[in-house]
Give the backbone structure.
Amino acid sequence: MLETRSGKTRESYHSGKAVSLDAAQRHFCHHANCMKSYARYSDLGRHIKTAHETPSSFLCPFDRCTHSIDGQGFGWKDKLVNHLKSKKHKLSAEDAAYAAALHNLPRH
Ligand SMILES: [Zn+2]
Ligand SMILES: [Zn+2]
């Protein structure tokens, strides 16, 4: 839609700063199958921390759920509980909390 103005709007909006250079210097996540890229390195760092380094140790107790696979779980128990309460599993709040706790006992 904005393209109809022959692309000049973007340049003037950024007051002459090299927009194309900025795009070329995006920081790409080095993890396989992850296509994320960020203009700022700090943003990429935060992404790696939250998406790849947070131990996703809270696994879904349902066998056929992709979130039951090691590495595909949730970083926070609350998220797993929410997942169990979602349309996918339809557990009650109590059942979800119980299942999440039972299935994810701390390992020694
Ligand atoms: Zn990534
Ligand atoms: Zn699940």
User: Anything to note?
Assistant: Residues 54-108 form one domain. The pocket of zinc ion (ligand 2) is lined by residues 60, 62, 65, 67, 83, 88-89 (CB under 6 Å). The longest strand covers residues 27-28.
